[in-house]
Write a structure and sequence with these properties.
single chain, Helix Hairpins, 3 domains, five-stranded antiparallel beta sheet, 10 helices, 47% helix
């Protein structure tokens, strides 16, 4: 028979423990969703605001320069038109209108300069700086540059002209300069016109963002109040349509938890009801037998009643022990730190403890030992309980003269051990094999006394260790075909 049933092959892949459990999330405290969104909205806004001011200043400077540069270009062209060559000499004759243009106003100072091809000043201000060597000037093309005159920053327009069409070798340099006071005033006015409204708009934006977040998170507060006002026993799902679309997956996941909680609560209620029902029968029998014993006068009858009381109390004690074991196994916190266990030795010791019971019933109980030692990390108390329930269940259902065999071996998958308890009893029909793992369920037609908790306990212990319980056929005769039951438990070796 194959070691691993194909039906559980996929599940066995998940039995091996992870490589490490050292990485644990560090709790940095709860974060405010409101504060998080507010930070991500206002922080970029406050960061971009000074950048906006800087860009506005550069744009304002460019806008302010454009009309004044055009005015300088018109002025230099007006001056260039008044330059003539008379008797081989370059002369500048300015009419009154041109002089008015060059006259300094109340805000800016106007400078001009005319220099012939020999570098001689023909007219204007000698302090006006000449173009630099890398400044490229062309005839009739006006170029602009910034410079300083006597500590004042000025904007200079410069060009070359030829007094006559045939005097290309006699180029005249014409320059007109203007201080930057009016440009600065215009740029400041533009900046004020743009920046001042931002000082009003920015607080309004902050208030609107605050109000928008408050309104946007209002459904979350309403959901919080609905959850907080629920009673302790209310496990009904939360209405998803009343919540924002973004948190519907969260509510759906929370509802899944509520469904599981409801199933757990109902399972606990059924467990308590079944336990009460199961305990009521032996306790009622004890009471009746005690009353009968009080009425007996014959020593023989009294002895028989006392024996029945002892037998009933033994069954009740066993039932209570199984109930406590099942409750303890289902509480994951009861699974203390795992230690390294010799599983083969634990199986052999458990088998020895049931030898007297098997001998009284005429059953051959044995443990198949192996040369190697099988070790795993687990809870010794739980594993002992698992062996006891498996062997007890097999002895109960095996007829007189039958046999029960316990063995531990390696699986064909690395890191997984197999515990098997085989018998040649009546077997379990395939359609009943899943149901017998439920609490208090017993196969119909069986006259064997029991509580129906043994296999449920084994299943829970296997799950606590990351393993699985499987019920198979134990074929002990081929012709005619006869088979009993093989209880197989897969257990991963685990880690400390």
């Amino acid at each position: 028979m194959a070691d691993v049933n194909p039906a559980v092959d996929i599940e066995l892949q998940q039995l091996l423990p992870p490589e490490s459990y050292d990485a644990r999330p560090v709790n940095k405290g709860p974060r405010s969703l409101f504060g998080e969104i507010l930070d991500w909205m206002l922080a970029p806004l406050l960061l971009l605001w000074p950048m906006s001011i800087a860009v506005t200043y550069l744009v304002a400077q460019s806008i302010a320069n454009a009309p004044f540069d055009r005015n300088l270009e018109n002025t230099i062209q007006a001056v260039a038109q008044q330059i003539k060559e008379v008797d081989g000499k370059t002369q500048l004759s300015l009419p009154m209108s041109a002089r008015q243009i060059l006259k300094a106003d109340e805000n800016d100072l106007i400078y001009f300069q005319v220099i012939d091809s020999f570098g001689q000043l023909i007219a204007g201000d000698k302090d006006l700086p000449l173009p630099l060597e890398n400044d490229v000037l062309q005839i009739g093309l006006v170029t602009f540059r910034d410079a300083r005159i006597g500590g004042d920053e000025v904007r200079i327009a410069a060009t070359y002209i030829a007094p006559t069409k045939t005097s290309n070798n006699k180029l005249i340099l014409v320059q007109v300069a203007e201080t930057l006071e009016k440009r600065s005033q215009l740029a400041n006015e533009i900046i004020k016109g743009v920046i001042l409204p931002q000082f009003i708009i920015l607080p309004i934006v902050v208030v609107l963002v605050w109000f928008g977040l408050t309104r946007g998170l209002a459904p979350l507060h309403a959901l919080q109040n609905r959850i907080r006002n629920r009673t302790v026993d209310d496990t009904s799902p939360i209405e998803e349509r009343a919540a924002p679309q973004e948190i519907m997956p969260l509510i759906s996941s929370f509802n899944d938890v509520l469904y599981q909680l409801e199933d757990s609560v109902q399972s606990q209620k059924r467990f308590i009801a079944d336990a009460a029902h199961q305990l009521k029968t032996p306790l009622a029998g004890l009471r009746m037998q005690a009353e009968l014993a009080q009425r007996e006068s014959s020593p023989a009858e009294l002895q028989r009643s006392l024996e029945q009381i002892a037998d009933s109390s033994t069954r009740a004690t066993h039932l209570v022990q199984q109930l406590l074991s099942l409750a303890r196994m289902e509480n994951t916190s009861s699974l203390t730190e795992k230690i390294l266990i010799n599983l083969s030795q634990a199986a052999e010791d458990a088998t020895k403890n049931w030898l007297n019971t098997a001998w009284e019933k005429g059953i051959d109980l044995g443990y198949e030992s192996a040369a190697s030692t099988f070790q795993m990390y687990g809870n010794p108390v739980m594993l002992k309980e698992m062996f006891n329930n498996l062997i007890d269940n097999a002895i109960k259902y095996t007829p007189k003269g039958g046999y029960v065999t316990v063995n531990v071996r390696h699986s064909n998958r690395p890191g997984i051990l197999i515990v098997e308890v085989k018998d040649n009893g009546p077997g379990i029909p395939p359609e009943e094999r899943q149901r017998v793992l439920e609490r208090f369920y017993r196969v119909l037609g069986s006259d064997v006394e029991g509580s129906g908790l043994g296999l449920a306990i084994v299943k829970e212990i296997a799950a606590q260790h990351g393993g699985k319980l499987e019920i198979l056929e134990n074929i002990y005769q081929e012709t005619p075909l006869k088979y009993g039951t093989c209880m197989r438990v897969y257990l991963p070796v685990g880690r400390a």
